TrEMBL record:
Lineage top rank: taxon: Eukaryota
The protein's name in its UniProt record: 3-ketoacyl-CoA reductase
One BP annotation, GO: steroid biosynthetic process
Species assigned in the record: Cyprinus carpio carpio
PROSITE patterns found in the cross-reference section: ADH_SHORT (PS00061)
Taxonomy of the source species: Eukaryota, Metazoa, Chordata, Craniata, Vertebrata
Membrane-topology annotation of the record: Multi-pass membrane protein
One GO CC term, this protein: endoplasmic reticulum membrane
Amino acid sequence: MRTGQLFLFPPRRLYEELGCWGMQRKREIEVVTGATDGIGKSYAEELARRGFSMMLISRSQEKLDDVAKSLESTYKVETKTIAVDYSHDDIYPKIEKGLAGLEIGVLVNNVGISYSYPEFFLHIPDLENFITTMINVNITSVCQMTRLVLPRMEARAKGVILNISSASGMFPVPLLTIYSSTKAFVDFFSRGLQSEYKCKGIIIQSVLPFFVATKMTKIRKPTLDKPTPERYVAAELNTVGLQDQTNGYFPHAVMGWVTTVLAPIKLVLCLGLRMNKAQRGGYLRRRKLR
Ligand SMILES: NC(=O)c1ccc[n+]([C@@H]2O[C@H](COP(=O)([O-])OP(=O)(O)OC[C@H]3O[C@@H](n4cnc5c(N)ncnc54)[C@H](OP(=O)(O)O)[C@@H]3O)[C@@H](O)[C@H]2O)c1
């Protein structure tokens, strides 16, 4: 369905609509979590380019200040920042205070972390903390940010929430099992919530990218199937309002179709296991050599 929809709808409408919002909604502010790097930074730039004021949220105040300054000087928009670490679950009163009184038009729940290398569940270093951290950053952040922002969207009967899941949430990925499971949660959460709030004028979209060339993936040379975050986000924004669930970028939509419609799940699991075992072996060998 995902890919079919992308084939059916030429990617153009929302791009124009978002532009219009920029003109109509000058008082609004758009919120991006994990906004200082990679995909989140690109969302912040794309939205600022359309004239939106931006609320940037990440861990490091220094990096937040750099991105905010760059958006203000390049796009002449207002920016605000909140520095919090999403691996903790006691940060939400601080975020609530920072968002108080603001009209939020778009929330991009982007913040997320993955493994530093693929690993068997019981071999993950510091497993107990790893589980808590990944659940807090990848799952709790999405639910809690939505809790803070959705009531005002519901009251105004408009708003957009983009939840950045992952293609790893479309099927289990062995040796990245916790990451893959957290991203499946984000996908289910988004789709369930979209059904609840669609009739109230709110768009909630589940975004499931394959590889994008960011710090997280350590991909330095972008290719057609592993695009830069800028290219990915520009394409993804074209699908907002057209697709509740999207791979966001045409080559990724084709990959999504192959892995979920064409290939049997047993084969996908087997190839994932083999690929990640090879990556794990390479990583551990390199680490021994150092
Ligand atoms: N890249 C891909 O191929 C890919 C594919 C599928 C899905 N995704 C998803 O897309 C999202 C963005 O990924 P990315 O590749 O752009 O990641 P990235 O390049 O590593 O950027 C992550 C951003 O999140 C912030 N961040 C990390 N940990 C944080 C924490 N504990 N508290 C607050 N902020 C934190 C980082 O800023 P600071 O370090 O300054 O805090 C940075 O701004 C994630 O949800 C990821 O799962 C990525």
